[in-house]
From TrEMBL:
Residues 15-169, 192-333 form the N-acetyltransferase domain. The keyword Transferase applies. It is an enzyme of class 2 (transferase). This is GNAT family N-acetyltransferase. It comes from Deinococcus hohokamensis.
Length: 333
């Protein structure tokens, strides 16, 4: 979960703020989905993500709160340490207020709770954010001393308008490389061998993905937990594999829980020695063929606005950017 702020500044009515529990996951999922409908959550997905956090060897911190007005949940907030970019003094903050509860000071009260908690933990860096078409949320962060660090586009491809015929014959692979899905590779090599090859390619490719801090090394044991999530789609994971069995490129599709018409792109990347040889295009085209076969109507992906090569490729394929998520930072480590 990335840091998010949706808030307001007027005085509230009767408001109570309490720590959340696992029993509140349906409430968190409902409010998070209401505030950011483009990125909905389910209790099952939240439960999986929390279990991954709690079992991670870095022991990242996580806590959340529920704001209730006259007994009704109107806002949620959380503080966590993201395992993929871990530093013991870096935290991510989320704060989301339902649209019907804005303008009543709920966000201000919750922000005070978050700030007190972060001070008590000795936080030296806090990351949070909002979308660029949410000026009140951006101003809320700015007033609290946050400054912009990076922007990330949602890029969306409408498969009804994607001209597959225009790409016929393109996306050839280099000699000695074949395209195979993760599901097929598991059948060929066995599950563990296939996943270890996938992990090796993934771990190197992700190191160069733009982010606001250094990537934490990804162990195979932690990587394995990805396969336990409710949106895992092995047939949608395209791998470029050499004759020696090395995964040198990949493009991932994940299911969008509760929306069979949408697929989400995970990582698309190649190992450093294999870049600028057409692998990304071949992998993306293969993934889009799978998406069409699955009956999906849209494919979503996220890209840092500084990732010019991937943005250019997605633009060629017909992906179109939505408002960018603006990540803000306070302090530094």
């Amino acid at each position: 979960m990335t840091g998010t702020v949706q808030s307001s500044t007027a005085q509230p009515g009767t408001l109570t703020i309490r720590p959340g529990t696992d029993a509140d996951l349906p409430t968190l999922a409902r409010i998070m989905s209401e505030v950011q409908p483009a990125h909905p959550w389910t209790p099952e997905t939240l439960a999986h993500e929390l279990r991954v956090l709690r079992e991670h060897p870095k022991r990242p911190h996580y806590t959340d709160w529920i704001a209730e007005q006259d007994g009704e949940a109107v806002a949620v907030a959380s503080v966590l340490q993201f395992p993929g970019m871990f530093h013991p003094e870096r935290y991510h903050a989320e704060l989301m207020v339902r649209p019907t509860a804005r303008g009543q000071g709920v966000g201000t009260r919750l922000a005070a709770v978050l700030e007190e908690h972060l001070r008590a933990r000795g936080a030296q860096e806090v990351l949070a954010g909002a979308y660029e078409d949410q000026p009140e949320a951006l101003a809320f962060l700015t007033r609290r001393g946050f400054t912009e660090a990076m922007r990330f586009f949602d890029n969306v491809l409408d498969l009804d308008t994607f001209d597959a015929a225009a790409w016929a014959g393109q996306g050839a692979l280099p000699d000695g490389v074949r395209l195979v899905t993760l599901a097929a590779l598991e059948q060929e090599l066995g599950q563990e061998a296939a996943r270890r090859a996938y992990h090796a390619g993934f771990a190197e490719a992700r190191e160069d993905v733009p982010r606001t801090g250094e990537a934490t090394p990804l162990t195979f044991e932690d990587f394995q937990k990805r396969f336990e999530g409710p949106t895992m789609f092995p047939e949608g994971i395209q791998l470029a594999v050499t004759a020696e069995g090395e995964v040198v490129g990949l493009s991932e599709l994940w299911r969008a829980e509760g929306n069979p018409a949408r697929l989400n792109t995970g990582l698309t990347g190649t190992r450093r020695a294999w870049r600028r040889r057409g692998l990304a295009l071949a992998l993306k085209l293969a993934a889009l063929r799978v998406a069409r076969e699955e009956g999906a109507k849209e494919v979503w992906t996220g890209n840092a606005t500084t990732n010019a090569p991937m943005l250019a490729l997605n633009d060629r394929l017909g992906f179109r950017p939505r408002p960018a998520f603006v990540e803000f930072k306070w302090g530094g480590v």
